[in-house]
Amino acid sequence: MAQWSINIAVVAEPYFVWPRKDWVADLNGSVAIISSAAAGTPTLEGVRRGQGCVAARFGEFVVVGVYFSPNRSLAELHNSLAELRAVVVGSYPLPVLVLGDFNAKNLAWGSRRTDVRGKMVEDWALETGLVVLNRGSVPTCVRMRGESVVDISFANPALSPRAIDWRVMEGVETYSDHRYIRFDVSTQPSSAPVQQAPSGPRWALKQLDRELLLEASILQAWVSSPDRPADVNDEAGWFQEAMSEICDVAMPRVRPGSARRQVYWWSRELTSLREACVAARHLYARHRRLRIRPPNAAAIEAELYEGYRAAKTALREAVMRARDRAREEMLETLDRDPWGRPYKMVRDKLRTWAPPLTQSLRPQLVEDVVSALFPTRGEHPPPPMAPPPAVPEADHQDDDDGIPEGTGVDLRVAVRRLKARNTAPGPDDLPGKAWVLASEALGPRLEGLLSACLERGQFPLRWKTGKLVLIRKPGRPADFPSAYRPVVLLDEVGKLFERVIANRLAEHLAGTGPDLAEHQFGFRKRRSTVDAIMRVRALTTEDAVARGGGCFGGVS
């Protein structure tokens, strides 16, 4: 899927079904729908499972995967088709795709003859209002005993004109008797993906060069600047541009859309073996299509088939060795990092990259979720606030008699706290580690900016902008806003300033007062959740002793 940039696929008789959100299977695990993790790909929603069929909404249409075993009796096939018809009809008026291995032959989709199963499937398609997408008579299943067209693609009339370039991939090795089938579905203008606002540059933090970053920050610090900036918004903009230039020097940017098109353990040897396997399959298939066959055709065919089987076995064994070797190398990292990739894999905490939900969900659903999570309240009077002082002129000296000194100390404390965290960056995408390293050279100028903000009672506008991230809550319907938890990511430098303000407030309350209540544990130094639990336990014990019995309490 990654190699061909496929958005969605249906797999009949998969070897196994991954327990991931981008994999959905029927009740028997005999057919699965897989969605891509590429940016902008819709998620699978509204999953419905049956015996040999699974359906899911994918963007603006519904995909139904089907596998009917050839061992099913005609009565069982009739019941399965009735169940499948209910699934398809229940998906209307949305466009519907029905894809899978029906194990039924009919002239309508390219078979050489029509059998009883094929007639039943054809009647079912006519009753359901589906159109066959198969084109030509290229076999979709090639076995030693013969060839057949049993993999069928259906669509309802609303979608069939948009399904183009249907084809059987003859020159690709699949490790199976069945061949890949590909086609494209054109996007209507009304359902075209919305152009997402650029999220800003992203840097490969793992390739950070610390020395280059320090040198670049020193060069930026040489730029002359006033002790107090004339405009805090302009100064905040300068810091963002300067830090972007510093990050460009110290580490490469992550290119958008540079999705991996092959697994990391793939090698040139595997490529050569796959090419040899495809060539052997071509020779075997070409010989079977000969109209004028030589006297020893059966012997030649058996020899070609054995050559193809040997090439396929060699490729499969080489792939297994490469995967095992990669797994062993991963396990060897346990000595260096016991909480790394192997631990996350065992604890099921390892996740493949996926685009943000705000990009993969339907635009209308995103709008509904955001409106419900952040409702607009009309006529909400703001609390009375003192007007901010006027922006001083460039040569104006700030009256900072009421502002305590020591911004440098507060900044170093906030930077030290940022150094211990590994949080996602905000809209500027500047990582916290870059701010920690650059603060050694840019610290004095940043202190001047923060001091000016404190003295004037101003907060730079760009630091108030956040990036919304939606996190899916398990076990809730995907179409409801309550299934998502919002998280707003802020710029790291803005959070530094917030920590400075919080420290100032805590010091003022502790020194001048009135201080916070003794039972306040949240957002206070040297007070943890364990301390709060011990306090609750002590209170319940004292109450139980005083009453001479037990008591019940609830903690939320």
Automatic annotation (TrEMBL):
<dbReference type="GO" id="GO:0003824">
    <property type="term" value="F:catalytic activity"/>
</dbReference>
<feature type="domain" description="Endonuclease/exonuclease/phosphatase">
    <location>
        <begin position="62"/>
        <end position="181"/>
    </location>
</feature>
<feature type="compositionally biased region" description="Pro residues">
    <location>
        <begin position="381"/>
        <end position="391"/>
    </location>
</feature>
<protein>
    <recommendedName>
        <fullName>Endonuclease/exonuclease/phosphatase domain-containing protein</fullName>
    </recommendedName>
</protein>
<feature type="region of interest" description="Disordered">
    <location>
        <begin position="375"/>
        <end position="405"/>
    </location>
</feature>
<dbReference type="Pfam" id="PF14529">
    <property type="entry name" value="Exo_endo_phos_2"/>
</dbReference>
<dbReference type="InterPro" id="IPR005135">
    <property type="entry name" value="Endo/exonuclease/phosphatase"/>
</dbReference>
<dbReference type="InterPro" id="IPR036691">
    <property type="entry name" value="Endo/exonu/phosph_ase_sf"/>
</dbReference>
